[in-house]
Amino acid sequence: MPTRQRYQQIVDRFEEIARANLGQPLNVAEICDALAVSQRTLTRAVQAIRGSSPSRHLHALRLSAARAALKTDASENVTQVALRFGFRELGRFAVDYRAAFGESPSDTLRNTRHCG
């Protein structure tokens, strides 16, 4: 099997496991065990397919899930959403969220409440 295709399969499975466990404090070593690949192989695969490290990609998946929750469910506050997706340092969450999406999590939630 060509390397690119194998790497795509590894990344697809990595993302599947990550999405199924977004609120859990998963680490890359646990995901490697579940995938039956070495950390080096996972790192190479994620870098080749997503241009990122596994931990950064996992973080980005969690941020995107938090954003989706803030945009669709105005019944929770920012703290509840952040904690639900495994963000324990709320200040760091807010900084990373703004860097990724160009607005604060509270702005996203406020816009959801006004539009919904």
Structural summary, described in words:
It is a single chain. The chain is built from seven helices and no strands. With 116 residues, it is mostly helical. It is elongated.
Which helices and strands, and how do they pair?
Blueprint: H1 3-20, H2 28-35, H3 39-50, H4 54-72, H5 78-84, H6 90-101, H7 105-115
Low-confidence stretches: none
Specify the biggest β-sheet. none
The N- to C-terminal Cα distance equals 48 Å
The name CATH uses for the topology of the largest domain is: Arc Repressor Mutant, subunit A
* Nearest-integer average pLDDT: 92
* Shape, per Cα inertia axes: elongated
Quickly list its features.
116 residues; single chain; Arc Repressor Mutant, subunit A; elongated; mainly alpha
Gist?
With 116 residues, the protein is mainly α.
